[in-house]
Amino acid sequence: MEAVLTHLRGAIERGEYAIGDRLPSEAELCRTLEVSRPVLREALRALQTMGLTVSRTGRGTYVVADAAREPTFGEYTAGDLLEVRRHVEIPVAGYAALRRTPDDLDKLTHLLDRMERETDTTVWVAMDTLFHLCVAEAAQNPVFRRVIEEIRDALARQSAFLNDLGGRREHSDREHRALVEALREGSEQDAVRAMSHHLDRVETTLTDIVRPARTGTPTQGGPEQ
C-alpha cells in the first residue's frame, strides 16, 4: 500500500494528474499497478486523508491539491486533534496514576497483552482506542471519558493512518507499556511523561508522513503487490 500511495502521490505532486483531473478507475489502476483492489483502496483513502483527492460517489476520485495538507480524521484535523489530546490526555494520565484501582490496572494490562499479541491491524486499532478510553476511565472523572468518546472515531482513523504509513504499531505498544507501568507505580510524574512522549511520537510520525514526497521517476513496472 505504501508503494502504491508513493506512486500516486508522486504523480500528483509532479503534475501528471493535475488539480481537477479524475484518477483512472480502480480497475485500471489495479491492472496498471498490479495490486489488489483492497490495497488500492487503502492508498486512495490515504490520499484523501492527506487532502490530495476527493472521492465523489459514482464519479470517481478527483485531484483537489498538488501538495499534501494537514491530515483530516473524520471531522477533525490532525492539529486540532493533537492539541486537544495534549490538553486532555496528559493530565488524565497523571490523575489516573493517582486514582487508578486494581481493576483499572488489570483491565489495562490485559488489554495491552492482547494488543501485543494481535495480528489483525483492524482489531488492534479498535483496542488502541479502547486503551486510551480505559486510561480516561482510570482518572475517575466521567467528563474525561466523555471527551475521549467524542474523539474516539477520529482516534481510530488516525491510528490506522499512522500504522499503515508510519509503522507506529510496535512503537505504540512500547509507549503504552511504559504508561501502564507508571500507572502501576502510582507515579503522576512518570505517567505524564509517558503520555507526553507518546503524543510527541504521534506528532513526529504525522509530520514525517506529510513531508513532501520524493519526486523521482517511479520504478519501471510500478509497485509490487
Word description of this protein:
The chain is mainly alpha-helical and 225 residues long. Helix content is 68%, strand content 5%. It is built from 10 helices and 4 strands; from the N terminus they run αααββββααααααα. It has helices spanning 2-13, 26-33, 37-49, 78-99, 102-117, 121-138, 142-150, 152-166, 169-185, 188-210; strands spanning 53-56, 60-63, 72-73, 76-77. The strands form 2 sheets. The protein has a two-stranded antiparallel sheet. A two-stranded antiparallel ribbon has the order 3-4. α4 packs parallel to α9 and α5 packs antiparallel against α9 (169-185). The chain is elongated, with a radius of gyration of 20 Å. It starts with a helix and ends in a 15-residue tail after the last helix. 35% of the residues are buried.
